[in-house]
Amino acid sequence: MVATSQASSGIVGGSAVRLRGVTKAYDNRGVALGPIDLDVRRGEFISLLGPSGCGKSTALRIVAGLIAPTSGEVNVAGCAASAQTGRSIGFVFQEPTLMPWASVHDNVRLPLTLVGMPRSDADRRVDDALARVGLSDFGAAFPRELSGGMKMRVSLARALVTEPGVLLLDEPFAALDEITRFRLNNDLLALWHSLGKTIVFVTHSVFESVYLSQRIVVMTARPGRIHAEIKIDAAERDENFRTSAEYVAYCRQASQALAQASGVEAAR
Fold first, then answer.
1. What is residue 200's three-state secondary structure?
2. What phi and psi values does residue 125 have, to the nearest 5 degrees?
3. Fold of 3-88+165-266
4. pLDDT computed for residue 255 by the predictor
5. Domain spans, the chain
6. Residue 92: phi, psi to the nearest 5?
7. What's the pTM value of the predicted model, to 2 decimals?
8. SS3 (DSSP) at 56
9. At CA 13, angle to CA 232 and CA 41, rounded to 5?
10. Which strands, in side-by-side order, build the sheet including 45-49?
11. Pairing label, strands 45-49, 198-203
12. pLDDT of residue 78
């Protein structure tokens, strides 16, 4: 499956996510994040890359409005994160977090049920979301009948069903086998290309970040700060790119930046 760069499609333009001086501190654990400044352009696909515990997931939850920053400003589509209704942002967690007693269809419909959308309208949204992730024939199935990759597709459909402008993904493929992970990487790129969503993707995998992203934001170890930004200027993302010298060079650059970022924190 081939996905072309959003930069060539004319979708990118304007600011979708903006962080200024954002920090997060906990009384019993000290400073976990920041300060960080970050702009994500509308329609852009970026990855937050860093070691475990560096605050990548914390940053994502702050953007989503799930937790509040200790200081700083967060704006999504021109609105403060605290003012978001949740409909402009879709969130995919590390685990699918599906209701085991509910069908795939009902799991995907949950966000629409919570906002009181009429059943007929919600069902149309659900059918479309399931089609986009390749699960049209599994609406009546239950989570226990699905593979790990299929469960993650359900989670992705549930995030898409509200038709968000910004999609946040927190290491969604980390627990999957390599073949399934590669397939879902390709499917995610195809969704990004067809829907024009702004995507912020958290990962600790250099290889995944290079394959997926237009831009990689490399973070230091705790407290997470932005150490470097790497632009991935690849017109197409497919198996030819994954095995190319260009891909290897980008992976080397990202690996070196990550090592430097860890060294900066270690030397403090």
1. strand
2. -65, -45
3. Rossmann fold (3.40.50)
4. 95
5. 3-88+165-266, 101-163
6. -115, 120
7. 0.89
8. helix
9. 55
10. 89-92, 166-170, 198-203, 45-49, 215-219, 226-231
11. parallel
12. 62
pLDDT at 5: 35
Instruction: Output the CA–CA distances (angstroms, integers) from residue 83 to 63, 93, 152, 176, in the order listed.
Output: 11, 22, 28, 35
Among the listed residues 57, 119, 59, 125, the one whose alpha carbon sits nearest the alpha carbon of residue 87? 125
Give residue 209's Cα distance to chain centre.
Answer: 11
Look up residue 137 and give its DSSP letter: G
Tokens of 236: 């197409």
- Distance in angstroms (rounded) separating the CA atoms of residues 90 and 105: 17
Q: Measured between alpha carbons, how far is 152 from 156 in angstroms, rounded to an integer?
A: 6
What's the distance, CA 105 to chain centroid?
A: 22
User: Distance between CA 16 and CA 31 in Å, rounded?
Assistant: 26
Region of poorest pLDDT, from 8-12, 83-87, 140-144, 157-161: 8-12
Question: Could you tell me the two tokens for 132?
Answer: 């986009």
CB 19 within 8 A of CB 63: yes
